[in-house]
């Protein structure tokens, strides 16, 4: 292979006219983090609601929760991203569709909503598994204390379920973080898109994607360390 390495490329001016190639990659890293955090907020809240619905006595609630999970879990993320970005505005009334298309940073908002709804299906399964793993006596104890169903979930079941599912939830967050790279297909200039732009401008493909890989690993290590500390703090006594 006749390839000329150039690690100094990161300090050279980028063709965009603002900063260096390193600044370009860091800008992509910022969009990756913002997209991951915003979509995770949607996924956690919506996934918790859907997960609870799947454990309620109501057949209608369980049916709705099951339909949501199967719909969003079984359609590839890339297809969902295209549907949200290209198809949804065409299905809405003309004024609403035009408003969405003209939004500043429309790829960012689309990616956040798409990733949030997609990941919510996976979070819902984690929440359902956590609730069903609890001893039946905890639900009965809430009833014996005079709690309503909502109060039983709020004060008894969910706090304990979240402590059980914290490790798999950490994995889901990391998956969500890595899935932000799919958003480059709709024009979001996140980290992978920035690395690809850098290799197209400079032809230093190995340097660009090596830097992107190291940045992804760095973020994931930070998340894993923070999650490990949180797991130790919230661990159920006697299980660690």
From TrEMBL:
Its main location: membrane. The chain crosses the membrane at residues 29-52, 82-100, 208-230. Keywords: Cell membrane, Membrane, Transmembrane, Transmembrane helix, Transport. Residues 29-227 form the ABC transmembrane type-1 domain. PROSITE patterns: ABC_TM1 (PS50928). It is a multi-pass membrane protein. GO terms for molecular function: transmembrane transporter activity. The keyword Cytoplasm does not apply. InterPro entries: AA_ABC_transptr_permease_3TM, ArtM/GltK/GlnP/TcyL/YhdX-like, MetI-like, MetI-like_sf. GO terms for cellular component: ATP-binding cassette (ABC) transporter complex. It is found in: Cell inner membrane; Cell membrane. One of its GO terms (biological process) is amino acid transport. The keyword Protein transport does not apply. CDD domains: TM_PBP2 (cd06261). PANTHER family: GLUTAMATE_ASPARTATE IMPORT PERMEASE PROTEIN GLTJ, MEMBRANE COMPONENT OF AMINO ACID ABC TRANSPORTER. Belongs to the binding-protein-dependent transport system permease family. HisMQ subfamily. This is Glutamate ABC transporter permease.
